[in-house]
Amino acid sequence: VPPGGTFLCYEISVCSSSKLQIVHGGCFVFSLSKLQLKTGDLDPRLFSRLRHLQKLDLSDNLLDKFPNSLTLPDLRVLNCNNNKLEDVTALKQFPLLEELTYENNVYLTLNDDYKVMFLLQNLRLLNGKDITKLANHVRRVNSRKLTSKVTAHWEKFFRDQLPEKHTAEQVKSIKKKFLKSVQTNVVYGPSSLSEFTRWRVKMIAEEFLSYSLGLELNSDTEPEEKTDENEEESTESPREAAEDMAQVGDFSSYISNVTVTPSKRKRNHSKSSPGNKKSKTQANTKEEAAEDVSAEPLHFLQCHSKGNSREDFKTQLWSCVFEPVLDSGARKDPIVSSSRTVATCGGESVCLIDCETGTVLKKYKVATEEFFSVAWTTLTMVISDSRKKAHNILAAAGRRGIVKLIHVAADFCYGEIKAHKKPIATVCFSPTQETHLFTASYDKRIALWDIGIPDCDYNFKASQLLVLETASIPLRIALVPTCPEQYLLAGCEDGCFAWNIKLDKGQKSRPFEAIFQFPDEESVTTSHRVDGLAFLNDDVVVSKSSKPGCIYLWSWSRSFDAKGKGCQRTMSAVILAELEWSTTDMSYLTLSTCPAKEYVFCGDEQGSVWMYNLSNHTKAWGSAKGKRSERRISPTQILKWPELRVNGEQPPEILVNNVVADPAFTYLVVLTSVNITAIWKKS
């Protein structure tokens, strides 16, 4: 386009089925809107000839990313609304860009807003808002503080590790360790910006190594996640969540002034050696028998408060489950090899927490709901251009009998299933059929749903596959590990039951197939509340009943007679052992297991966590003639609840409703009756 803005008209072939007229009067404007364009349709050979292009409209297409070589050196205005963009870092190729809009790109988050503010030094308007002041803060203040933190981290932990005369291998090793450490430990800003902070820290650390120490600079600045602390105010996300499910800022509170005294209960007590250690939550730790203590406190969070009130110590927390690790995906954390993100629920909200940093990564609220249960599954979804990608989906359910389906990486509640007319006590996904979801309700039914796989527009179809009739309210459910598509166990208000759930049977509504008898004080009974149920391995079931002070371990294979005929048969549970537990008659304090480490966990009515390492017993139980342990097995350790003070006062009586470890038993998450989530880390 010659200087002076002579009117020009071009006709350019965009694809085999479309032709587009481009009109210019004063500046070169190119509109490619509503053409179903995909990333591969943006031909760099065409765009390289448009060196004076100043305005480009790519809205209402199917773009998932930008090619890195469009070569538009004079581009000032870019519209990418209503696409499927997953990353914004390629926009740095447009250094003169002043106005940018990319609303309704479901995979982009607040972190991407901050990335473009940093990368595009001339950007004034983002999604129609003047961001000049905020962008200057991001480019200057934020960068200055992060640079100071990165430099201090090197000086404190790594400077002395690199010898004056070093080899290339030593340089490579120290660089790898430093980049990993600095991204994990350098934290700054609100939790909603954790990914951006991680991304900038890596960039700054690589520049520091390159320019200060002469180490090779890695230009790869892929998005990474998830650490930070609240040091500056948050900015509202530009995208609204669906329906009444919204992502909100991090209003969690840390509980400070904590005195923690772990206690051991063993048959042979060793001499104690006192020690003091301070956790990241300013928790003062006094350790008894320090060489034996296997876990220490990291964080105490108050993140499910009604109305975000710091005075809320009444909201009950009920369920937590660790997020599965994805093998691939744009949002995978490359630093952490196993999951440290846990979903928790209680009251009107569901939270996602980074256990290492104590950061509340995301929070979802439904004002009229009380959530009782959450569960994860991984779905392979078609995202664009017929490409498939694995994404983690979170199901959350509670008092309203509705299951919410949340695509966490996209901050999007894409649908709901009206599963029951009464509250849902618990939910779980099949380990072999990723779309199969079980919901157990106060209507005395357990339903099996196929939630379907959402398409690229989040359209999905859910269908009910099966209904299991129960004699009383189901409280806990577990699929049998050796045959998860055939048998389901449920702990109910009036006993422990089993169902045949095989779908090739014609009967859609089924009664229970077996009820299990357990020893009572002087007899055998089926009538007792089972409020804790989990498998320790492929065969050993762990269940907790209303009988005070006792947790049973029993054999599924030796208790259930699969060859028997007829329904509603009574079978005696073959008890392998009893675990010593609290003598309380308090119900609904559930248990959990860590099969990989052969641990059982259960909280009590005094805020303590009872831990049982059963690795010395499972081999004997696995033999065909394995005998019942004569004595009750004592806990390996009891984690005592610390002395917590909020505004100088202790919270009310603390019940541990649930306690869950990640699969590798690195973290232990404790949910209480007083709206406090405690996170412990294995030493």
Structural description of this entry:
It comes from Picathartes gymnocephalus. The protein is mainly beta. Among the domains are: 133-213; 297-326 and 338-682, YVTN repeat-like/Quinoprotein amine dehydrogenase (Methylamine Dehydrogenase, Chain H, 7 Propeller), CATH 2.130.10.10. It is 13% helix and 35% strand. The protein is built from seven helices and 44 strands. The strands form ten sheets. Strands 3-4-5-6-7-8 form a six-stranded mixed sheet, with no helix packed on it. Strands 27, 28, 29, 31, 32 and 36 form a six-stranded mixed sheet that branches. The chain starts with 7 loop residues before the first strand and ends with a strand.
Give the helix/strand layout:
Layout (H helix, E strand, L loop, with lengths): L7 E8 L2 E7 L3 E4 L12 H4 L5 E5 L19 E3 L19 E3 L8 H10 L5 E2 L2 E2 L1 H26 L10 H18 L8 H20 L32 E2 L5 E2 L3 E3 L14 E4 L4 E5 L7 E8 L14 E6 L18 E6 L2 E6 L4 E7 L5 E14 L2 E12 L3 E6 L4 E7 L5 E6 L6 E6 L3 E6 L12 E7 L4 E6 L7 E6 L2 E6 L8 E2 L3 E6 L4 E2 L4 E6 L4 E6 L4 E6 H4 L9 E4 L1 E7 L10 E4 L4 E5 L5 E5 L4 H5 L14 E3 L16 E6 L5 E6 L4 E6 L1
Parallel strand pairs: 3-4, 4-5, 5-6, 6-7, 11-13, 26-30, 31-36
Antiparallel strand pairs: 1-2, 7-8, 9-18, 10-14, 12-13, 14-44, 15-16, 16-17, 17-18, 19-20, 20-21, 21-22, 23-24, 24-25, 25-26, 27-28, 28-29, 29-31, 31-32, 33-34, 34-35, 35-37, 38-39, 39-40, 40-41, 42-43, 43-44
Helix pairs in contact: 2-5, 3-5, 4-5
Mean pLDDT: 80
CATH architecture label name of the domain at 297-326 and 338-682: 7 Propeller
Helical coverage, percent range: 10-25%
The shape, in one word, is: globular
Name the CATH class of the domain at 297-326 and 338-682: Mainly Beta
Q: Separation of termini?
A: 67 Å
Strand sequence of the main sheet, in spatial order?
3-4-5-6-7-8
Any idea what the radius of gyration is?
A: 28 Å
E-strand count:
44
Quaternary assembly: single chain
CATH superfamily annotation of the domain at 297-326 and 338-682: YVTN repeat-like/Quinoprotein amine dehydrogenase
Largest sheet: 6 strands, mixed
**Given the structure, what is the number of helices?**
7
Please state the structural category: mainly beta
CATH-derived topology of the domain at 297-326 and 338-682: Methylamine Dehydrogenase, Chain H
> β content, as a range?
25-35%
Uncertain segments:
1-26, 216-252, 256-293, 328-337
